[in-house]
Amino acid sequence: MNVRDPALPRTPAVTSRLPTVGTTIFTVMSALAQERGAVNLGQGFPDFDCDPKLIDAVDAAMRAGLNQYPPMAGIPVLRERIAAKMEALYGHRYDPGSEVTVTAGATQAILTAVLAFVGPGDEVIVLDPCYDSYAPNVELAGGRPIHVPLRPDSFRPDFDRIAAALGAKTKAIIVNSPHNPSGTVWSADDMQRLAELLRPTDVVVISDEVYEHMVYDGEHPSAARLPELAARTVVVSSFGKTYHVTGWKVGYAAAPAPLMAEFRKVHQFNVFTVNTPMQHGIATYLADPSHHLALPAFYRAKRDRFRAGLAATRLRLLPCEGTYFQCVDYSAVSDLGDDAFCRWLTTEIGVAAIPLSAFYVDGFDQKIARFCFAKKDETLALALSRLRSL
């Protein structure tokens, strides 16, 4: 019988708060791409640099001595410019003092919103396929994620199923448009239907709008556009996505003052505040709206170039209305499941993609893979040259 020596160092046994969470598919596919020298169109980040003017603005802030703690909610000038941008785009004025908070990226903003409004036993509706942090965020709060699938033929909301999922325990619903992974954009009618459905309830909406400036046909139907929705919604966005600086991890949340007051209670004990010089640099850069207003055309050109190249393969293109993701149906190429196909594509063809089943709680497999086209033109050209062999 082995007896542990009590004098030896001991690591305590713990009960996991997230027992089913392991290494994400994004980490797995990126590592496989690096190992095999594949073009990585899997993980969603640009491989090109941001505007040097943004770097210069951050550098100037650092050299000006703006390196100590900023206010908990974010520096006033940045919050003012966020509020001005949202008013200009969506017609809704958020008070920068009480209704806008700068966050350490959009993922932190979503977790903070969940922790602020969800408690043990509460239910939160998440729409599958969805970004992989939503359900674990709910579980960390002690809540129960209620998975409602989007329509598999179009990835649009199924309001009958959403209505059936609403109940006495429903505390919140997380929506995402433009949608990762499908590239679908909710319509103005969709947002109106959501507002009508939630009208008799006290359900909070957490609206993940990090791809708001990547809508390729018409205007982004932000929850902020509808007063009825804005009154119950935490709108989340990301400077990392907008300005090609995902590694900076700076985003923001906007919500009515009573909701934002609760949000900030969690925020101050979560990260407290966000990198000071980057806030000043982003505030300077945000003063020129052309930087975000030009983004749809910039990414539309990449999307169109990538789609034209994919059209020469046996991959079937799905619509891409927004985001920088392109989904394809590969059923004419292979009978493999989507996880196995993406691994094969990485190792044998030399292009990494993400299986869509990774975004479903039940691993629903439709033989669909997701590519990211937020890449240099030469990166996309190399990937397309390899994909033409399919």
Radius of gyration: 22 Å
Which CATH first-tier class of the largest domain would you pick? Alpha Beta
Which H/E pattern describes the elements? HEHHEHEHEHEHEHEHEHHHHEEHEEEH
In CATH, the architecture of the largest domain is 3-Layer(aba) Sandwich
The average pLDDT is 96
Tell me the β content.
Answer: 5-15%
Tally of contiguous helical segments: 15
Q: Largest sheet, order of strands side by side?
A: 2-8-7-6-5-3-4
Principal-axes geometry comes out as globular
Number of domains: 2
In CATH, the homologous superfamily of the largest domain goes by the name Type I PLP-dependent aspartate aminotransferase-like (Major domain)
**Cα separation of the termini:** 59 Å
Topology, number of strands: 13
Helix content: 25-40%
Sequence stretches where pLDDT stays below 50 over 5 or more residues: none
Backbone structural class: alpha/beta
Q: How would you portray this structure in words?
A:
With 390 residues, this protein is an alpha/beta fold. The protein has 2 domains: 25-44 and 293-387, Alpha-Beta Complex (Aspartate Aminotransferase, domain 1), CATH 3.90.1150.10; 52-288, 3-Layer(aba) Sandwich (Aspartate Aminotransferase, domain 2), CATH 3.40.640.10. The protein contains 15 helices and 13 strands. The strands form 3 sheets. Strands 2-8-7-6-5-3-4 form a 7-stranded mixed beta sheet, with helices on both faces. The relative contact order is 0.17. The model has no long low-confidence stretch (mean pLDDT 96).
